[in-house]
Hints:
Layout: H1 6-15, H2 23-35, H3 38-54, E1 56-57, E2 64-65, H4 71-74, E3 79-86, H5 89-98, E4 103-107, H6 125-134, E5 139-142, H7 148-161, E6 167-170, H8 186-194, E7 197-198
Helix pairs in contact: 1-2, 5-8
Amino acid sequence: MEFSSKLLNQAVEEIAKLPGIGKRTALRLALHLLRQPESQTKQLVKALSEFRTQIKHCKVCYNLSDTDTCEICANPARDHKTICVVEDVRDVLAIENTGQFKGVYHVLGGVISPMEGIGPEDLFIKELIQRVAEQETEEIILALSPTIEGDTTGFYIYKQIKHYPVKVSTIARGIAFGEEIEFADEMTLARSIQNRIPFEKSLKF
């Protein structure tokens, strides 16, 4: 794809680096931005710059936050004795959209995947164990995607915390095996959380 403008080519090349964006879509987006008022484009650049430089991980649950402690963890109305363990921030958003969970979260930052060189030490697992050991936790809900990696991660966490006086449960398998949490529809995800089962009953090992 040849462009008469090096500046246009540069913009398209950078936009096309985003996941799911091809060169043609990147060109449409670049031309769309060019047609907008300059102030609007500057506002977009400012928002992206501030997002990249000022966003933080919550020091409690490792969700994305504007402050040291995210709004969920800082909310006294949430059930802080129930922790929902998820793979990443997108899963928090998916579960929050159901409106059915009133506890708090722990974001692992991924799942154990030896094929990709990701081990327990690369995730926020030890921080979760520390929360269980130090806080008055009554239940850990493993809301991990029903994949081999998700199941492996759930089993590893279960082994690490099973000796603590805490209930360990997992979401019901209304979600098909191999499906990621973030792509499940809200009704299915809500029912999976409501109908969660003791983790022991889900073991296939």
